[in-house]
Amino acid sequence: PDSRTPTDEPLILLAARQFNWDIVFLLIEYKASFAVIDSRKRTLLHYAAIDGHEGIVKKLLTLGINKRFTDIEGETALSLAEKNHHTSLLPLLE
Questions:
Q1: Are 69 and 76 in contact (CB under 8 A)?
Q2: Were both Cys, which of 32, 65, 83, 90 would link to 1 (CB 3.0–4.6 Å)?
Q3: 34 in Cβ contact with 63 (< 8 Å)
Q4: How far apart are CA 46 and CA 51, in angstroms?
Q5: Cβ-based burial of 62 (10 A; exposed 0-12, middle 13-18, buried ≥19)
Q6: Helix%, strand%, coil% for the chain, nearest 5
Q7: What one-character-per-residue DSSP string does 16-48 give?
Q8: Is the pTM of this model over 0.90?
Q9: CA 15, 40, 49, 51 torsion: positive or negative?
């Protein structure tokens, strides 16, 4: 479950970047680490906020993912949700 791509990116992050949440949660079910960051220091929650799926954000927060983590540009999941006009996520990510 903690497989990596040929460019050494965790497979779970590749799935998140592609908004393939079924694969993300399947990997988590098989005990893949969800506390991973990519080369931009983005987490699964960053990508969920960009994608705008409230249910995915709720699931990740239930797992204990850090909602205050900032990427290399200083963006949090909250700021990315705001930038992408996903207002329903804002109360969850504040």
A1: yes
A2: 32
A3: yes
A4: 9
A5: exposed
A6: 50, 0, 50
A7: HHTT-HHHHHHHHHTT-------TT---HHHHH
A8: yes
A9: negative
